[in-house]
Amino acid sequence: MTDTKIALVTGANKGIGYEIAAGLGALGWTVGVGAREQTRRDAAVTRLRDAGVDAFGVPLDVTDDRSVAAAADLIAERAGRLDALVNNAGITGDRPQQPSSVDPTIIRTVVETNVIGVIRVTNAMLPLLRRSASPRIVNMSSSVGSLTRQSGGYGETTTGPVAAAYAPSKSFLNAVTLQYVRELADTNILINCACPGFVATDLNGFRGVRTPQQGAATAIRLATLPDGGPTGGFFEDAGVVPW
Ligand SMILES: NC(=O)c1ccc[n+]([C@@H]2O[C@H](COP(=O)([O-])OP(=O)(O)OC[C@H]3O[C@@H](n4cnc5c(N)ncnc54)[C@H](OP(=O)(O)O)[C@@H]3O)[C@@H](O)[C@H]2O)c1
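Above: the input record for the complex with NAP. Below: its predicted structure, written as tokens.
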């Protein structure tokens, strides 16, 4: 086993995930580029390597048990452990998502990727994370998953469009994250949620106002937390996001 830190970033072929991989790589980490489609995965790995990053491709569809198990095997073979898992892959799902008319299939599809996908990948990677001296898990959430912000509570501004699949999927992800924090409280694994802000990516038709690089910053910070750093938190660049 090498001393170089190793991370897996899911959905790293583009958008914020790509920039998380690039940012960790720039810090000297080896980065597994989790991506489900070979051409897009290879292109991202090539781009990262050209930028000097020690990147390698990890075929990974977070909705597929066999794909996720194979990804864990690949990382075990390549590095023998995992220092940071960044669960970044996510979808918004088809629209419309007005709660009064949404097709339940859309909700199931979004939850399968944004929540169950995170659980599937996390559980497959936990044995590798347990072999790290300083393991970190970062779940890419969104402030639209904040019930406080959705309700306009405590003076918070309501964010994002009405979306019965996407926004609650991130609330669900936040809730699941806290269950991991509780279960793993007696380990050294630091587990946190990140919100990247409103970032111009495919996810929102590039309507976001921040760059993917800016959106990657909080996740990179949480993936590289020092020992004794926070766990069980929800963070954005400006600080703590209310649950
Ligand atoms: N953009 C924003 O303003 C914003 C705000 C808050 C939170 N977020 C969150 O940030 C994360 C990244 O979003 P983004 O804006 O960078 O979006 P993006 O550019 O659309 O990237 C999403 C990534 O997830 C991957 N993905 C989707 N389903 C997958 C699956 N089943 N298996 C593996 N990979 C899968 C995509 O792969 P393909 O290329 O193969 O589709 C892509 O690499 C998401 O969790 C999103 O909810 C984004």
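Notes for the reader.
The first strand starts at residue 6 and ends at 10.
Helices lie at 15-26, 38-50, 65-78, 104-129, 147-150, 166-183, 212-223.
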